[in-house]
Write a structure and sequence with these properties.
The structure is a homodimer of 199-residue chains. With 199 residues, chain A is an alpha/beta fold. Chain A has 7 helices and 6 strands, in the order αααβββαβαβαβα.
Chain lengths: 199, 199
C-alpha cells in the first residue's frame, strides 16, 4: 500500500540517498521543501543544476573552481615551485586560513583506502606526477590527514616522487597549539618528542 | 576572501537552510551532489519541482495528496462519520499501519505552540469545524501527540466542538505494548492505572 503521494516519496528517496541522511530525516526534509514557497524550492533545484554546470576541477591543481584555471593557480604571487598535496578541496580552505602557505596546491580528491575500494588510480596521483615531471617543482609538501589512510597515501606518493629529484616533506606532527598535554594521546606526544626543536 | 566557487557555496547555503542541517553537513552534501552524474543531479532537482507541483492538500481532510481528493477520503469503504484528528501527515501513516481505524482523518498541519509562534489560526482547525458543522460526523477522535502541545491542542479543539453535539474522544494513555513497567515513567503509569479496564 502506498501511503505518501508518489512525488513526495520520490523527493524523500532522493534525500535519503545523500550521505548521512536516514529515512526519517529524509522524510522530514521532503516535508520541509514541500512547505517552502515555490520560488525558494526553485532556487534550491536551480542551485543543484548550477553547481553541476559551472563547477569543475582546475586542470592544474584539480581543486574545484568555476573559472578556467582556479584563482590560486592563476595568482602570479604564488610560488609555483612549491606544491602542497591535500586530500580534499576543503583542506585547501583550511590551509589558506592559516595564511602561511604561499605555494600552490594539488588536490587528490580522496586517499587510498582499499577497505572503501579506493585505489591509487582512483585519486589524482597521476596528475601530480605529471606536474612534477615538468621539472619546475622544487618541493612537494604532503598534507594529507595524519590518520592511517592519509599516512599511507603520503608514503605511497612520496615513494613515487623519490626518483624525480624533488624534495618531499610532510607536515610536522606534534601537540596542537593551545591544547593541554594532559589530553594529548601517547602517539602524538612521542611524535612531538621525536620532532623537538632547539629554541 | 571567497574560498569556494560561488555556485558550490550557493548549493551549500541551500542545504544549510534545511532543518537540522548545519554548515559542515551542508558542505558535505554539496560536495556529494557535485560528485553525482549529471543525470542523478537532475533527478534530484526535478524531484523538488515535481513534489511542489503535484502534491497539495486534500480539500476534505487536509492530508497531502497528488489526486483531487485523497485516496482515503475517496474510499467508499471508509466510515465518514468518524474523524481521527492528527497533527501531521506522517501521523496518518502511523495510524494506517495499525490497520485498526476504518474512519477518515483530519490533518491539522501542526499543533498550537505559542513558543514557536504557532497559534490556533495557523493550523487547520477551521476546516475541521466546517466538516463537523455539516452534521454527518458522529465522533471525533483526538489523536495529537500525548505531549504538552498535543494535549493543549486536543483540549482547545474539543472545547470548540462541545456545542456541536458530536462525541469527542482521545486516544487511550497507558503502558506501551511490549514495554517493561520498570522503564515506564510515573505519569504514564498513573494514567495507565486511571484508565484500567476489567478483563
Amino acid at each position: 500500500m502506498q501511503y505518501f503521494p508518489a512525488a513526495l516519496q520520490e523527493l524523500a528517496d532522493q534525500f535519503a540517498r545523500l550521505p548521512g541522511i536516514g529515512g526519517k530525516t529524509a522524510q522530514r526534509l521532503a516535508f520541509h521543501v514541500l512547505g517552502l514557497p515555490m520560488s525558494e524550492a526553485e532556487a534550491f533545484a536551480n542551485a543543484i543544476i548550477e553547481a553541476k554546470n559551472t563547477v569543475h576541477t582546475c586542470p592544474v591543481c584539480q581543486n574545484l573552481t568555476d573559472r578556467e584555471i582556479c584563482h590560486i593557480c592563476n595568482d602570479d604571487m604564488r610560488d609555483r615551485s612549491l606544491i602542497c598535496v591535500v586530500a580534499e578541496p576543503k583542506d585547501v580552505i583550511s590551509m589558506e586560513r592559516a595564511r602561511e602557505f604561499s605555494g600552490v596546491y594539488h588536490v587528490l580528491h580522496g586517499v587510498i583506502s582499499p577497505l572503501n575500494h579506493v585505489y591509487q588510480d582512483d585519486i589524482r596521483i597521476k596528475e601530480l606526477l605529471q606536474r612534477v615531471a615538468q621539472g619546475t617543482v622544487r618541493e612537494v609538501i604532503m598534507a594529507t590527514n595524519p590518520d592511517t589512510e592519509g599516512e599511507a597515501t603520503a608514503m605511497y606518493i612520496s615513494r613515487l616522487l623519490r626518483p624525480m629529484e624533488v624534495k618531499v616533506t610532510r607536515l610536522a606532527y606534534g601537540v596542537p597549539v593551545g591544547s593541554q598535554l594532559e589530553y594529548a594521546d601517547e602517539i602524538t606526544l612521542s611524535r612531538a618528542l621525536e620532532g623537538r626543536q632547539e629554541i
